[in-house]
Amino acid sequence: MGKANIKKYVLNLAPAFGLVALFVAFLVLGTWKDINVAYGLKSILNQSIVVAVVATGAIFIYTLGSFDISLGASTAVSALIGAMVYNRTESIWVMLFVCIGVAVFVGLFNSVLASVFNLPVFVTTIAMLSFLNALVLLLININGTGSEIAIPAPAVVPYNTVEFKMVLLIGFFLLCVFIFSFTKIGRKQKFQGGNPLCAKLSGISEKKMAIIAFVMSGIGVGLGAFLSIIYAPTLTKNTASSVGMDVIIAIVFGGMPVSGGARSKIYAAMIGAFSMTILGQLMVMFNLNSGIGQMVKAVIFLLVVFLATSDQRGKLLPR
Amino acid sequence: MKTGNNNILKRIIGTLAIPGIALVIALLVCSNQGVILFETQGNWILFLRATASVMLTTFALSLNLNSGRFDFSIGSIALVSSVISATICINAGLPTPAMLFISIVAGGVLGLCSGLVYVLIKLPPIIVSLGVALFYEGLAFAITDGYGVSFVANQELTSFTNSPWNYVGVIVVALIVFIFILDYTKFGYEYKALVSGQKVAVNTGINEVKNAVGCYAISGALMGVVGFLSATNSGTVQMALNFGSIGTMFTAFLPMFIGGFIGRFCNEKIGYLLGAMTTALMSLTYARLLVDSSVQQIITAVVLVLFLIYLNNENKVIELVMIKNRLKKK
Amino acid sequence: MKKFWALLLTVAMTLTMLVGCGGGSGEGTEAGGIDTSKTVKMGILISDATSAEALAFQNYYREYIGKQYNVELIYSDVLVDAAGEKSAVDTMITNNCKAIISFSSFDRAAQIQQCQDAGVYYAIATGTLTEEEYETYKGYEYYVGAIGPSLDVEFQTGYDMAKHYLDQGKTNFAIFGGAIPYYTEMHIYRAAGMLTAMVEAGGEGANYKGAADAGAIIGQIFADGGVDVTSIGNINIVGYVGGYDMTDAWWGAVGQMTGTAGLEVILAVGNGSDFFGTGIANTDIEIASVDAYAETYGEAMKGDSLHYLAGKFSASIGPIFVATYRAALGDPVRTAEGNALALSQGYWIATSADEFDTYYSVDSSIESPAYTKDVLDTLLTASYDDFAKFVGAYSFEEIQAMK
After folding, report:
1. In terms of residue numbers, what domain contains A246?
2. What is the pTM of this model?
3. Would residue A313 count as lying in a domain?
4. What is the number of structural domains in chain A?
5. Nearest by CB: B236 against C78, C245, C274
6. How many CB atoms lie within 10 A of CB A166?
7. In this complex, do B46 and C252 lie within 8 Å of one another by their Cβ atoms?
8. Is A149 a member of any domain?
9. What is the predicted ipTM?
C-alpha cells in the first residue's frame, strides 16, 4: 500500500476517528465531571437513533447528488398519521406500517413529481416542506384534541427499550448496507450520482434510481417516525422539526460528499448522527449558553468536515 | 415592422402575464368576499414592504444560487446585521438613514466573511452556509444575551414604515444598483461568464475567488437591507437559534422561478421584482381575507409546484394545446 | 496522517475551550437542619430562550440563585417538543443531577414519570398541573410540585386587564391571541377572562357567540382555535390576530388590526407591544400585555407603546427552587397528606411608567432581587403552611415587607 493510499484510507476514516475521539472525550470528561456514563450511553442512543435512521435512508438520495429538505416534516406527518391510526386500531404494528407507508408514499410522490414532470428534486422537496408543515398543523387541528396528538404512554413502554431500538437500527442499517454495497442498485446509484450522463448512456434509468432512492429514504423516515412515537408519544406541531436539518448536518459530518457519486458512504449518516449527539452532550456538560454553544458547534462542524475532505479540493471552487 | 410590433407585444404580455393574472385573481377573490384589496394606505405599505423585502431576498438568493451556490445563511445575515445596526443607532441616537447604512455595511461584511470562509476552506457552499448560519445565529444571540433588540418606542427608527414611498425608494434604488452591477460592470460580466461555464471562465483568466467573495458580500449587503426593513417594521429584532433563520430563504424561491420565466421577455432582475410583486400580492390577499396560515402554506406550495411543472414542461403543454386545436379543426 | 493528527488536535483544542467554559458554584453552609455543604447539581429545562419572561427567569437563576446557593445549575438546550424534553431529562440524569426544574410543558406527565423512574426530583417552575394530572402524580415521591399561575389565575389576569379598560368606558377592543391557534391553555384562559369581562359589561343578554359564562367561553375558544371579530352586547371586538407566523401576510394582518377604525385598546394574551407598538404610534390606541418585567417594556411604556402590563416577576421562581433544593438535600416540603406542592402565584400589574420602574428596579436587581437569599432561606426550614403562606403573599408590597 503506497503512502498516498494510506493517506486516502486514513482521511476516508477521519469521521470515524472523529467519532471515536468524541466518544473517548465523553468517557474521560464524563468520568472527570462525575456523570452517569452508563445512562449517558443509553441517552446517546435515544437521542441519535431517529436522525441516524432517517439519515441512513437519505444517503440513497444524497448519493444521486440530490438532497431532500423535507425529511423532518415528512417524519412529523408520518408520526402524526401513525399515532392517529394507533388511536383507532390500538395496534403498534399497524402504526409501524402506517408510518412507513405514509413516508414511502411521500417519498414516491416527491420522486414521481420530480421525474415525471422533470423538476429538480431539491425544488420539489422545498415545496413539499411547505406543504407537509401545513399538513402537520391541519392534522393536529382536525384531530380536535387541542395542541397535540398523543397515544397512551403505556402502549409504547414495552418497545422503548435499548434492545428493541438496536434491533431496528441494526436491521435497517444492514439492509441499507446490503443494497448499497452488495447489489447493482448501490453501484448504479453511485454511478448515477458521479456521472449522470455516462450512467444514462450505459442504460441506467435515472427515474428508476430516483424512485428507489426515495423509497429507501421513505422507509428510513417511516422508521424514524415510529421511533419518535415510541420515545415520546405526545406529538405536537414541532415534533421532528429539527430532524430535517439534523439529517443534513449528520450526513455531512459523517463524511458524505454532498455531490454524491462514488465517494458516497452508507455509514456516514450513522457516524454523523452519533457524533453530533455526543458533541451536544459535551456542550451540556460544560453548560455553554445557547448562543456561544451554537457558535462552538458551528466551528467544530466546519473544521471536522474541512479536515475530513481535505483530499477532495480542486482548482475550481466547489459548487 | 409588423413582426417587430408583435415581438414587443409578446414581450409586454410575457412580462406582465403572471403578476397581471395574480392581480386579477386577488381582486376577484377579494371582491367575492366583499373586501377591497387596496383599501387603505396600510395595505399599500404592506404590499410594497413585502415586495421590497422579497425582491431583495430573491436577488441575494439568486446571486449565488445561479452559480450553484446554495446559501442557507442569508436569513442569519439579515438577523445579525439588524442587531448590529439597531444596537448602534439606539445607543448613539442615530437616525433611520444611518441605520440603513450600517445595516448594509454590516450585511456586506458578514457576507464577505461568509464568502472568505467558503473560498478559504473550499467546502461545498451548502455545507459552509450551514456552519455560517449556525454561527451567525449564535453570534446574534450572544451579542444581545438572547434578548434581541427592541425599539418599538423609538419613533425615529420606526418612522420608516409610515410612508409607502420609502419602500418604493428602496425597490427602485436596489433594482438600479443590482442591474448596474450585474449588467454594466466587469464584475457582472465575469459573474455571467462563471455562471455559464465555470471551468472555461477560470481558464480564460477570470478570478473566480474574487468574484465569488464579491457575490457573497453583495448578497450580504442586500440581506442587510432586508434585516433593516424587518426591524423597522416591528421595532424589534427577534432571536433565532437552531436554523430558525432559514425560513427567510424559502420566501424567495417562488419569485425566483417566476423571475426566471419573466426573464425571457425582459431583464431577469425586473422579472425578480415582478415575481416579488406576485408573492406580495398573495401575502396581501391572505392578510385581507385573514387566511389561516396552514392554508397559506398549502396554497403557496401548490402554486410553486404547478408553476414549476408548467415551466419544465412548457413545450409539452404547448404541443398538447396545438394537437387539441388541430383535432378540433378537423 | 498529518490531517488525522490535526483532526485530533482540533477535537482536543475544542475540548480545552469547553473545559475553560465550565462554571463554579458558591460555598456551602449549614442552614437549619439541612446540610448545605455539598454542591447540588440541578438541571433546568428551557423551552424558550428569547422571550422577556424566559430571559428574566434565567437571569435570576444564573446571576443570583446559582451564585448565592451551593448549586451547579445545568441548562438544557431550547426544547421545542416532547421528544426534546425527554432527551433533555435523559441528559440531566446522565449528568447526575439530583433534581430538575422545568420550564417546558410539552408532556409534563412523561417528565414526571421519567424522573420518578430515575429517582430524580422534579419540579414545575411555570404553570401548574391540571387537577386530573395533580391527582395522578401528587403522591409520587420524586415529584416536588408546581408553583406558578394556575389556569384560574390566568383567567383572572385576562379578566382584570379587560375590566381595567371597560371601567374606563372603552368599548372597541382588538385581541392578540398569541398561541391560541396552537391551543396553549394559558393564552386561551387569559382570552376567556377578557371575553367574560366583556360579557359582564356588555349589557343585558350580552354573550360571546352564544356563550355567556366562563366555561362556555373557554369551550368556544378551544373549538375555534381563535377569537371571532364580533359584538358582545355593546362591547365590540373589532380585530383579532393570533399566532406568531411573522410572515408578510401575518404582519399585514397585524397592520390591518392596528388600523381598524374606532379601535381603542389592544388586549394581548402575551407580549403585545413588540408586534403592535409601531402601528399605534401617534394614535390614542392603548396596548395591554401579559409578560415579564423587561427593560424594553419600560421603554415602551415611556414611549406610549405599552400602557398596561401584567408581568411575572423574575424572582417568582425562587420558592420552587428552594422546594426543589430542599428535596434534593433530603427534606422535601409536602402537604399534610404527604402530597406534592400545587401553589398558585399571580402577576404584578403596572399601569404607568413610574409603577413599572418601581417594580423593574427590584425585579432586575442581581444584588437585591424581590426574593433575596435571606428571604428565601426562611423557606429552608418552613412548614408546608408557612411555605404556602409565603408563596401566596406575592404582591410587590408584601414581598418588600418581607425584607
Report:
1. 52-308
2. 0.86
3. no
4. 1
5. C274
6. 12
7. yes
8. yes
9. 0.87
